[in-house]
Amino acid sequence: AYDSYRKNQPQSKKLKSTLSFSDGRSEFVPAEPEESRMFFSNNAMVNQNNTIFTDFNSGTYVSQKSVFEETFLVKDSTRKINWKITDETREIAGFMCRRANALILDSIYVVAFYTERIPTPGGPESFTGLPGMILGVALPHENITWFATKVTEKVVDDKSLAPPKKGKVTDNKGLRKTLDNAIKDWGNWGKAYWKAFLI
Length: 199
What we know:
Elements lengths: L1 H6 L9 E6 L2 E6 L19 E6 L4 E8 L2 E8 L6 E9 L2 E10 L3 E8 L17 E7 L4 E4 L20 E3 L1 H12 L3 H12 L1
Parallel strand pairs: 5-11
Antiparallel strand pairs: 1-2, 2-3, 3-4, 4-5, 6-7, 7-8, 8-9, 9-10
């Protein structure tokens, strides 16, 4: 029955989000997901848990994270990612993008595609630090991707780009400590949640 259930469930889950940016700031906001019948659809790795405001001028960000039944407001410096830029290119949402590779959280392999035609060094979630906007990100070993489907040129009201305000205030170190204490006895299952909440 278990195998039959898995075979009859969708094998992927598609979510939508919006990345708005203007004058050295950006805001990544997940859209309300449609109801999913996917196997393990409530797993943290197949959900978007974060609303992220990034200030590139100050090198800081504020992330509102839903972690189990609690909401955290993580305020910290932007993640320093040691990108390695390659010669590979591909087109995403009408923009020619160059590939860059990196490793985050010591073990998560990241492939990103960015375009210099949009000079803001931002991207989806907390992926930043390339010489142009990141329009595509893949975590191959985690089976997760973020790819832009449309880029709209319009004036963004500065007041609409504001950091989230609700949640228990902490920083990256504090959130890691909280997660380590909460899932220390969960084994491999806990590692998946740890990655999902810290990406």
